[in-house]
């Protein structure tokens, strides 16, 4: 049982340091020091620093709120969920982006993109061009997260962000005509 407890201590220490510093600036010896163990034990439990990173950097977003709204409201709801998802999601996203030069980490980022952004949206769409629309939507959301979390563009953080970016996403998902009043012109 002591091995499992030590493994959990290493995992917790690594998760904390990877979130704070990123992959490249986190050394195995620092993880070991925080977990009060040896670097050799860290490697024995996890194999490599990259495998430990992949073990600790999990990103999930509860997609339940995405399924609870009508398709016509999905764009705004999706943006709201993404930008209010919490610091843990932001930290994991940043750690993955910063470590994406490593092939396995890049693959994890691609997998998260597919499972967290693409799959929940794809489940809601129909039509011959649904795959293209959902991939464009993923790129749009990814660009927002990059601007907010990587670049740190605080000027995007006004009260209109969710509504305005949600409208952009909605246009990509369902097309601009889906939100136009019949017989009216678009503002």
From TrEMBL:
Under Gene3D superfamilies, the record lists: Tetracycline Repressor, domain 2
- Tell me the SUPFAM superfamilies matching this sequence: Homeodomain-like, Tetracyclin repressor-like, C-terminal domain
**InterPro entries, from UniProt?**
Homeodomain-like_sf, HTH-type_TetR-like_transc_reg, HTH_TetR, Tet_transcr_reg_TetR-rel_C_sf, TetR_C_16
Portion annotated as DNA-binding: 27-46
Which domain of life does the protein's organism represent? Bacteria
PANTHER family to which the protein is assigned, alphabetical: HTH-TYPE TRANSCRIPTIONAL REGULATOR BETI, HTH-TYPE TRANSCRIPTIONAL REGULATOR RUTR
Q: Which Pfam families match?
A: TetR_C_16, TetR_N
Domain named HTH tetR-type: residues: 4-64
Which keywords annotate this record? DNA-binding, Transcription, Transcription regulation
Q: Name one GO molecular function term.
A: DNA-binding transcription factor activity
What is the protein's given name?
DNA-binding transcriptional regulator, AcrR family
